[in-house]
Design a protein that fits this description.
By secondary structure, the chain is of the alpha+beta class. Helices cover 42% and strands 20% of the residues. The protein is built from nine helices and eleven strands. Helix 3 packs across helix 8, helix 4 runs antiparallel to helix 8 and helix 7 packs across helix 8. The longest helix is centred in the N-terminal third of the chain and has 33 residues. The N and C termini lie far apart (72 Å). The structure holds flavin mononucleotide.
């Protein structure tokens, strides 16, 4: 019975009989719908999410984690303006290797990944896998794959995540903190183990060589430079530091990250707050 109908039905009894039982029933009819409404407003989204099967946490609709078997985080929306000019970022950019033991935020990681390969002009053309990006790409083939190596990022569980530009999200591919293993694979370069997170690049060379032949190999390396410089500049603008690391044992890195056979590891870029030397 609807609350209005329920209340109306009770009113004549209330005035005519005025007994306690009727008053109590009247009060229940009046306040129960209000209680249910307030309760579902507070907890309703979580409950319906559980019913949908896979949304686990949601912090203010900003960073959301989906799924258990394939954990996915929808990242905070990146900003397209800031307080540091591109000239200042260029002037101050330096490779940083001495990282503080301090977390970075999900917003900072989101911004860095967006700078690396985020979508700036959405498109439904399948080849673009979401649209044109922050970095140029020969024939718009986008041969790079970008990962987040997460160790100490607020709100994101440690692990290795593949960045999916379409939808600006990360999908977990390894569910443990691999920073120390990766440091060893990078010939013991301490910053890989010390930084709270790293951006990692691999490339699917076939995407470029399929159209451009041998020249596609050249294009992949050029494109890595474009994207990695974006990471340097974005880190600088956020008050963070990074360093492009090319010295590592390819096979060991591929093994730690579980890379598919058609992906070649290219760069590790630790990200974090740093000490000025
Ligand atoms: C292709 C490439 C590979 C690099 N590999 C490493 C590396 O393995 N370890 C490292 O500490 N720095 C590495 N660097 C960073 C350079 O050492 C650094 O850019 C150089 O010393 C100039 O310093 P700056 O970046 O502060 O201007 C690499 C840079 C490039 C472009």
């Amino acid at each position: 019975m609807g609350s209005a109908g329920c209340i109306l039905k009770q009113l004549p009894h209330l005035t005519m009989m005025g007994n306690m039982k009727t008053i109590v029933r009247f009060m229940i009819c009046l306040f129960l719908p209000i209680f249910v409404t307030v309760f579902s407003a507070c907890f309703g989204s979580n409950r319906s999410s559980e019913n949908e099967g896979n949304i686990e946490t949601m912090t203010g609709g900003i960073l959301s984690r989906i799924g258990e078997s394939q954990v996915t985080y929808i990242l905070p929306t990146p900003k397209t303006d800031g307080i540091v000019s591109v000239e200042t970022a260029l002037a101050n950019r330096r490779s940083q290797r001495n990282f503080q033991n301090r977390a970075i935020s999900a917003e900072q990681l989101s911004q860095i990944l967006w700078a690396a390969y985020g979508i700036t002009l959405p498109s439904a053309v399948p080849q673009l896998r979401g649209g044109l990006r922050t970095a140029p790409s020969a024939g718009a083939l986008f041969p790079l794959e970008v990962f987040a190596i997460v160790g100490n990022v607020e709100g994101i569980a440690p692990g290795v995540y593949r960045y999916i530009p379409d939808g600006h999200k990360i999908v977990r591919v390894v569910d443990r903190d691999v920073r120390n293993e990766l440091m060893e694979a990078a010939l013991g370069q301490r910053m890989v183990g010390a930084a709270p997170a790293s951006v990692f690049y691999s490339a699917v060379f076939g995407r470029a060589t399929g159209r451009y032949g041998e020249r596609g190999v050249r294009y992949v390396y050029i494109e890595l430079g474009h994207s990695a410089q974006n990471v340097y500049l974005q880190a600088e603008a956020l008050g963070l530091g990074t360093v492009a690391i090319g010295a590592f044992i390819d096979s060991r890195v591929s093994q730690i990250l579980g890379l598919p056979a058609n992906e070649t590891p290219l760069y590790i870029m630790p990200i974090g707050y740093y000490y000025n030397d």
